[in-house]
Amino acid sequence: MTTVLKRSSFLIVLLSIFLMFSCSDAIDFNEYKSIDKQGWKANKKISFKVDVKDTISPKNLFIHLRNNNDYQYSNLYLITELNFPNGNIVVDTLQYEMTDETGRFLGTGFSELKENKLFYKEKKVFPIPGKYVFNVHHAMRKNGDVNPIEFLKGIQDVGFSIEKLE
Description:
Blueprint lengths: L1 H21 L4 E8 L5 E2 L4 E7 L6 E9 L7 E9 L5 E9 L16 E11 L5 E9 L12 E2 L2 E10 L2
Antiparallel strand pairs: 1-10, 2-9, 3-8, 4-7, 4-10, 5-6, 5-8
């Protein structure tokens, strides 16, 4: 019994050490927010606050989405706002493909939950240090409708990350 216990303890320690060294220092910021089970409410902004100190190195900015089979569309429209410490705001309307030509969800994952890492800004240099706020909300509409879908189902989590260039 003690040999099995020692072997298990050794494997746990070995795995912990591997995970510590495999984590990359390339990530400056990474955060997720869960979406209500009802769905992503129209015009509900998901906000991320980031304290930026580095104004020299270029970074890649990503939007992360976790969706399940309840997502009914092949694409996704998002409206983003990047609020600068000095009050400037950059607004973008973005479209991302969520499925391939056959209707199979893109992203990674073995179950019905798929993780998508979507480029938001590439090689972005933050011009001034301070608190930045990134907001995102969906802009999905049914064909012919002017109003957004009230509760967009199938998106479980929305994330935002900032990564150093390697």
